[in-house]
Structure formats: C-alpha cells, structure tokens
Design goal:
- About 40% of the residues lie in helices and about 25% in strands.
- Strands 2-1-3-4-5 form a five-stranded parallel sheet.
C-alpha cells in the first residue's frame, strides 16, 4: 500500500510535468502519478477520486486561465470534506507568494522548482 492513492501535478509546462512524473514514479509512493496542464482538468479529476483516498497535489502558481491561487480558492469552495495534501511547487522566489500560499490551510509546504528527490522526500 502506497502513502498516496494519486499524486496530481498541476503545471502548464509539459516538460516540467514529464520530469516530475518520472522522478516521483521512481520513488514508488503512489498508485498513480497524473499531470494536468490546466487547473480545471485537475479539479475535475479530484472530484472523481473517492474522498477516503489520499491525494498529494503539486501545484504551480503561474498558469494561464486558472492560476494556482484560483485553483486553491476553487478547491476550498468545492472540496471541504477532502483531506488532500497540497504543496505549491513554483519557480517564484517572492516571499509574498510563499506567505500567501502558506496562509491557505490546505497548503502544507512551498517548494521552489526544480523538484528533487530530497525535496519530494521532505514533504512525505
């Protein structure tokens, strides 16, 4: 049994998603690693997952259409019963972004890109 049913990557950069998916898959910590280029697609997928199944969401901030902040607001509105772990994974080094992210109860950590095995292990 893995610690997570799914790890969901939400990032509009397909190369980042590919690299992160490969890195996470090697760690053998989830039944599935899924990536979504659009926040709306990720939210739809989360809605399909049974509430009792733990999900880890790695969320980028800067994305077109629905950004990471919008995603967090929609998540708060629609998934109050879920106990998922959300980690912001961003290229932003602005302390304001870090503080804003950590002000959300759902956000457990803020990591700067690139994702490494050590960073991944630090949030498990």
């Amino acid at each position: 049994m893995y610690p997570y049913f799914a790890i969901i990557l939400v990032d509009d950069d397909p190369i980042n998603n590919l690299i992160n998916r490969r890195l996470i898959s090697k760690l053998n910590i989830a039944d599935s690693v899924e990536d979504y280029l659009q926040a709306e697609q990720a939210l739809q997928r989360i809605q399909e997952i049974d509430v009792s199944k733990p999900v880890l969401i790695l969320l980028d901030i800067n994305m077109p259409v629905t950004n990471g902040w919008d995603f967090l607001n929609l998540y708060q509105e629609n998934f109050k019963e879920r106990q998922d772990k959300i980690v912001m994974l961003s290229s932003s080094i602005d302390y304001k972004d870090r503080n804003k992210a950590l002000s959300y109860n759902e956000v457990q950590a803020f990591l700067e890109k690139p994702l490494t095995p050590e960073k991944m292990k630090s949030i498990l």
